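Look over this entry.
=====
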Amino acid sequence: MRKIKVAPFMPTEVEVNELSANRAEVIAYPFENGYAITLAHPLKRLILGSSIGYAPISVKIKNAAHEFDNIRGMHEDVAVFIINLKNIRFKIKEEGSERVELSYSFSGHKEIKASDLANDLVEIANGDMPLATLNEDAELSFTIVIAKGIGYVASEDLKDEVDSSAIALDAFFTPVKKVNYRIENMLVEDNPNYEKIVFDILTDGQITPVDAFTNALETMNKQLSIFNGVMNIDVTVPNAKKSGDDNLLKPFLKGVDTLGLSARSFNSLDREGIKFLGELVLMSNLELKDIKNLGAKSLDEIMECLVEHGFGSDYELADATRDSLTKKIKILKG
């Protein structure tokens, strides 16, 4: 028997199933019949269209005037070199930096791969990608500009932003390679018509699938916030049993008293007012070392604990996740 309702059912569960380093499923349920597709399709478009990535926007090659030129001793034409360059997935290391200029020089017999371009300023997500093959008498020097952005920008639209002596490149910023979703029926009480959304997200390694999903949620909330003042409404749902953001932040919100730390380590953290695992994740190694009365053994114990929970030294928080986690911890600590 169909019951009379005055509001649609609020979904209560979000799960993350990590299939690999760059692929994950984000699962949400249960939705009223028809609501899953209403949310799934715009979120898919936002994941693809608003995820922030990095791409080369220009290249200046010594002894090459244009993209149809040749470099002595380099097997590939400049056009092929540029195609290979655009396929390399860079990531700017410095937080907040939106553009870096990088210069490289290679000589002699060498098969140059993407990993050869990694340095203190950028990481390379696909290090095995080939770039160029040089003969014994070859010399290749070039300068590239890596920028941060979203979507796709054609080289014609970048000519005003790059050096006139450089070759402007089509910029493929999008770090999401694929995002699909499926909607499954599920039983809630006696009703079999409730729905579950299963997102399948694959990235190129510049960001994690969960960060791509979180960024899309943030973008959607910002776009919808235009109606807050105009319509005198609040598009957020503060009284929901569980929000997607809360579920994505759940691994960070474990109490330090549940981590199995020694009394010495726990007491040092407790005296500093550190209550959650996420607070440790937010801290740099230098900040951890500066905790009062935290000896070398305790520091090692805490670092090992972070690794055990998947937050080792190579773990990086997306900007959106960092902001959400900081706000959530501030609310929980009052």
Notes: The first helix runs from residue 35 to 50. The longest strand covers residues 176-188. The CA atoms of residues 7 and 69 lie 65 Å apart. The chain has three domains: 11-51+177-227, 54-172, 243-334.
